[in-house]
Amino acid sequence: MARGGEPTLITSVQRALRLLEAVSEQPSGTTAKHLSRRTGIALPTTYHLLRTLVHEGYLEKLDDGAFIIGEQVAGLHSAAQGQGLRSRVRSVMTQLRDELNAAVYLAHYRDGEVVVTDIVDSPRMPRVDTWADFKQAAHATAIGKCLLSGLSRAERADHFDRYPPADLTPRTITRIRDLIESPEHPVVADTEEYSLGTACLAAPVLGADSPMTLAISFPARKLAAASFEAPLRVAAGEISRKLAVAGEFPTAG
């Protein structure tokens, strides 16, 4: 840190960013001389920075000598949009956690597997102990049941062919026919089927290319005494609307 509490800034980085901004303002591209005049950066320094930015893919130099934005910037823009959507969705999850005092989960059914992509919990309400892999325990979790409800009966049957239901607790439902033909519900429940003492509720999130769900877990004793369904459905609907505006939810590699 510099004196007076001000941050130490790297001048060359500042200049490079100013050049990127100046190039972005010219849809047809622009020359080094124009950029030098536009930014107030000395021409030799401008050339040096432009060569570096071209080498790294953040700018592209055309045959006529003009510079335009490069593919690396497009990649950053796409990543920023995805991260922005993740941040907005996570904000909804955090609000739901605080409102219900419950751990909150976001999950997808992707490439034939249950994948939990985000969890928001707290020391007061920690996430459920995943002693059994969610991929193999879809039959016993509200998350899995909700995701599977978004599939066809044939797809559900295929899932259970690959992951035969097993008893995880005395309350686990393992009858294949019941699992495949279970009717759809706006909110799916798991009452101590995955873990004794823990209940889970899940609601579908619409707008994704594959089944997606928002879920909460909490002590099973609270299920009868508290109304969790309405806030959960409201939060799932809010995430659905964000997806409708922004597009498909970004997924890791």
From TrEMBL:
Originating organism: Saccharopolyspora antimicrobica
Domain IclR-ED: start-end pairs: 72-245
Name assigned to this protein: Glycerol operon regulatory protein
HTH iclR-type domain location: 10-71
SMART domains given in the database record: HTH_ICLR
GO function term, MF aspect, one: DNA binding
Keyword entries, A-Z: DNA-binding, Glycerol metabolism, Transcription, Transcription regulation
Record's keyword annotation contains DNA-binding: yes
GO biological process: glycerol metabolic process; negative regulation of DNA-templated transcription
Its job: May be an activator protein for the gylABX operon.
